[in-house]
Amino acid sequence: MTNPVIESPRSGRVAPEYTRTGASKGNFEMVAWLFMRVSGIILVVLIFVHLWTSLIDGDGIKGVDFGFVAGKWASPIWQIWDLVMLWLAMLHGTNGVRTIINDYAEKDSTRFWLKSVLYASTVVIIVLGTLVIFTFDPCPVIDGVAHVAPYCPAP
């Protein structure tokens, strides 16, 4: 019995099914990998500060209501904070699911449709979330009656 010859991993011989085509060359996957690491670190900070200000520093979960959110979003700093958290979380999650689809969807057509649904839902959630953050009226007027709260300017 002879031992099979195992080529050196760096011998330069690559099976045809693993060769890169001209369309697949580039740095996209490396940039996506780097984005996951950087956005993950930033998200940890954003989320823990969010949880601290919402739960620990306040009245706990029972204190999170319309007034709490309205008071928080009356400040542009918290609007931007939540916007960055929304965008990073959605893009981070989308990139992760894109990787899973690439790994497990065997047919090109399945991969195409799964990623199309993923990207469409990501755009919808980012657009709706951004609209909610910037069009949220903390001092609403309902049926001609201004609902004044301590964080609202005087009418």
UniProtKB/TrEMBL annotation:
The chain crosses the membrane at residues 30-53, 73-91, 112-136. Keywords: Heme, Iron, Membrane, Metal-binding, Transmembrane, Transmembrane helix. The keyword Iron applies. The keyword Iron applies. Its main location: membrane. It is found in: Membrane. InterPro entries: SQR/QFR_C/D, SuccDH_FuR_B_TM-su. This is Succinate dehydrogenase hydrophobic membrane anchor subunit.
